[in-house]
């Protein structure tokens, strides 16, 4: 019952001033065990805020991050799953599934979390899961202004991961859920 | 507070373990876990076979599994029927308190806190308590689990010794003991196992178990995997330690229909009928102090002086049942004693339920807990008395010495327990009532004395008319109680009742507001008695002839019913003997042997005008009684009907009258009995020895009671055929069951009243003297006693005369 928050592309203060109030009220400390951040926070204050939600924070470098010490990619193991983090601006074409799959194989992870497109996506692909939590603040991206604030919460329990997607659509929080199961020895299939 | 929250989580459970709570020794005596389970009411104390035990065990375990399933939330499990729960509400981050995730997080919070507490508990037993199997318990539960664990260890010990009895042909499922708590896999496992159990037959192992010790045999049977209920019925089982521990814990916290419910100590509870708004734990702490004041008033006053409130240390002591004061081994012994006590409320007095006494003391177990606390305080008495301020005193109390003589403490606790129980019997302010089977009459007596002396003599001039009703009811109750506690001879019953009455009288004297007219409280009587005492003391030696006759008649009437009652009851001779021996006691105490000169001998060593007067009065009464006997008896019949109504009011309601009555009546009676004096005296001599034996059980109180009895007997003696003393006492104790003529009853009642007056006089005197020293029961000195002695003599004479009639 490990709760992992996947969040990213906040672009505070350049493109957005703050998280949506409804998101902030939901994100209370104590419930979440890990935070995975794809990047572009962009300032230290956001880092500190996320740290207050959970002490175990993993951030990868986005192109607008002011802290240059974040790594380009990161891998970690939670429960039975291996997770990989990358901002995604390095993977060209941006948001392309095959390229992301290449990165996934490179990192040798079960779950790959990337961002940069500011669009929520979740694929089951070649024995792995590729998740894009979107932009938590709804900041405009390089190619579109129409961005809904969203983030992802993963519930890792043994060999099963449940992905909850929280989106702010028209001022209301919508939640969706996706189940992924990992077989003991083989990787996830289509 | 983590303890509170953990307790709170358990309080959600709706089940209770109900059962009798008497310890059963025998083959299970050494299995502490099983014994405690019996004591706490989880297992039946009277089981016909091992099968029953197993069945009850299995049931309780099923109940716990049920509860657990209900309460411990696994958010992954969908509720039945709904495959797509409302995600907006039910997601992990939902703020909605109803969501399953919300509940899950709340329980996770509790878990964490409890873990924290546990990790700090019993560091010296770290090997056991810090293992993963122990997580999730707190301080009350930990010893319970430890005890279960010890039991299981014993089981494995036995197993090793007698391996052939334990061969288990069952294809065992593997089980991870680490998953004892809050592991959802365990729940699933349990379910699957329960299914398996059902498929097993009840094949009992047929081996030569009889060769073994009954104890070993029991252990084997209890743990037989193929016995009743299969695996679930194994009474000593590692797998179900969690279940069993929960059951024990639940029983302890809730206290099956008993008065000691630990949960009360932690949370606010508004018990029905509780008049106080105090927290139960505060109330229990003050009960503890009250018991201390009864047992050792100097220490109590010292503590009060310093300003040490009982709840400063009482809170900790009571809430974890002394878990923090003793090492684990000692604690287990103490808990043995506590659990062995019956936990049900003791309703000896149905008089007043609301506001009387302390809740914690109304059951033997509660009384034992309070007594334990008091005996702990007494153990470090000297160091407490030496402290100068509250801080050091509290320090001493909160850091109980480590090397203690536990046996001594427990022994003292047991003796105080009886004291506590009785201390709670009487109602409110002077919280002490007569003791039926008090082993330490000395203690009771001594404690009563200071209260007597302390209380100011508030003169009571007006007695409510309902007093006599109350008195009648009192007498009825006393009678019923005595009948309930059958198994004693009537004589001893009466004796004790007399003592009780006497004690009540003496104690309630100090009650500032004695006039509570309700169903037979002692207040009315005590108030009356107090007034009587005062009047009597004022008017010792005063005789009013005008009242004599009336009183005499009244007493005569009373005597006759009592006499008949006596006839039906007992051997008259014995009673006579008792009476006279009482008198002998009195005289002996007074310093003079009961001599033939019942009439003439003052029998009071304490010089004093009153004494002499009393003696003379008594002697005169005796003589009068003998003389007037005939007259009285002639008057008895026609006057009987109105007597009951007039009797008690005459006797009791009027202070001076009653005070005088006893004296005068005795005097008149004496006159009547003068003719029979010789006969009476002869009986008196012979009975002395018997009386001694009868009263052997009671120490100094016997003397007082003897006084009273002989007073009574003397007052009623005239009418008694079979023995005035017994008749009087029986009338006092209600000859309800006797179909006695109303007149006799009334007469007996009147005599009773007089005797009680005399008693009260004695009590007062005694109390005054007792103020100087707490335990000066043996000293029966005083004018009052002398008076009583004489009065008793006369009463006895009367009874003899009457019996002869």
From TrEMBL, chain A:
| Keyword Translocase applies | no
Annotated GO biological processes are: intracellular protein transport; retrograde transport, endosome to Golgi
What GO CC terms are in its UniProt record?
A: cytosol; endosome; retromer complex
Could you tell me which SUPFAM superfamilies the record lists for this protein? Metallo-dependent phosphatases
Query: Pfam families of this UniProt entry?
Result: Metallophos_2 (PF12850)
Keywords (A to Z) from UniProt: Protein transport, Transport
The record's annotation in Gene3D superfamilies points to: 3.60.21.10
Keyword Transport found: yes
CDD domains this protein is in? MPP_Vps29 (cd07394)
The Calcineurin-like phosphoesterase domain is annotated at 4-157
Family per record = Belongs to the VPS29 family.
Q: Which NCBIfam families match?
A: yfcE
PANTHER family in the record: VACUOLAR SORTING PROTEIN VPS29
Q: What is this protein called?
A: Vacuolar protein sorting-associated protein 29
From TrEMBL, chain B:
| Superkingdom field | Eukaryota
- Protein name as catalogued: Rab-GAP TBC domain-containing protein
Q: Which organism is it from?
A: Citrus sinensis (Sweet orange)
